[in-house]
Amino acid sequence: MSLQVQVDASLKAYNSFGVEVRASRLAEARTDSDVREALQYSVEQKLPLLVIGGGSNVLLTGDVRALVLRMASRGIRILVDDGERTVVEAEAGEVWHAFVLWTLEQGMSGLENLSLIPGTVGAAPMQNIGAYGVEVKDVFEGLTALDRQTGELREFTLAECAFGYRDSLFKQQPGRWLILRVRFALSRIERLHLEYGPVRQRLSEQGIEQPTAKDVSRAISSIRGEKLPDPAMLGNAGSFFKNPLVSAVHAAQLKRAHPELIGYPQADGQVKLAAGWLIEAAGWKGFREADAGVHRLQSLVLVNYGSATGLQLLALAKRIQADIQQRFAVQLEMEPNVY
Ligand code: FAD
Ligand code: NAP
Fold first, then answer.
1. Which of 125, 188, 224, 292 could serve as 308's disulfide partner, Cβ 3.0–4.6 Å?
2. What domains can be seen in the chain, in order of their start residue?
3. How far is CA 213 from CA 95, 173, 218, 288, in A?
4. Which atom of ligand 2 is the closest one to the Cα of 131?
5. What's the pTM value of the predicted model, to 2 decimals?
6. Which residue's CA lies nearest to atom 22 of ligand 1?
């Protein structure tokens, strides 16, 4: 067996909240055969298998009695390049932002709006990561996953992934699919998405009137760098709640009571409310109790000031949910995967 398995390992460095919990077993998968060995090990040892990438979308609420498998496979290959359309495949363990920068260096556009999102390529389809008007589904070509129930490899097309807002088949069927590699359809002809106000504003502040995909990536990276806490300095998992979708009637009622409410009408008639606005309006921005808090600049982001436990962070999240329900009759859904 080539898989190196650590016993009773700390997971503090492997979750972006920086929560101190221990895993009964921890291993790193660099190849498909490491993944298969890990599956076999978990069956033999009668231990559940928990797959992680960068740990930037998980909340660990206690010691993990499982074999935690960190995806560390590397490799990027160009499968199609006709001078205009390209298909690029990346291994699950590739660092997402490094991959985005690599595609831009190759003259391929499509991923620029998803710059500086922490984590790995393999986790990107899990919640159909999105930012500034672009989601993974918009550039998705296919992926290869291991069916943990049967041990067989399966290829997924776009239609088979059931991508939704921060959602996918893989998120809906937790523990079934282990994503090994992902394919993206990118373009050598730039079609930029500049709908989000702050992106256009940052580019115009920089005097850039005809931006390239690299300009957009740099602008978004600089906005994110200013607005979001760096997990290396302050533990967090990005947005802790999804933006809730409510009926147009409900949104209109709320708007009458709160004229400053921020909402975006959707194609299906519902309205997407800015969860951050609701939380801030309810007075939670900057709230802190012991080491668990709500970020002082970004009310959607829960933070760990040092020694918060996963349970303390979860309790804070539940208090916020209950308060928003009571004030606005809106149910906030948590975004990170809670274990
Ligand atoms: P992990 O946290 O390790 O895992 C997330 C989930 O995926 C877990 O359930 C895990 O079991 C599963 N998983 C991981 N890898 C695999 C695999 N190979 N196969 C099967 N299952 C797997 N998200 C956005 O959508 N948009 C943003 O703009 C954004 N900004 C963020 C900013 C900050 C500062 C932070 C901390 C987070 C942000 N996130 C954002 C959330 C997070 O970065 C993404 O969800 C990212 O895709 C998580 O990648 P990861 O490798 O860290 O996944
Ligand atoms: P923001 O620009 O302050 O906007 C607040 C919210 O309004 C966002 O959540 C966004 O929804 C929505 N919004 C803004 N302009 C919009 C438009 N033109 N059309 C439709 N919806 C619009 O948001 P932010 O918090 O700084 O984040 C910027 C982007 O990065 C957002 O897309 C956000 O989703 C993403 N982000 C995600 C995470 C995460 O962990 N999931 C963390 C940080 C940032 P959407 O969220 O639906 O885009």
1. 292
2. 5-71 (3.30.43.10), 76-187 (3.30.465.10), 235-338 (3.90.78.10)
3. 19, 34, 9, 39
4. 32
5. 0.97
6. 123
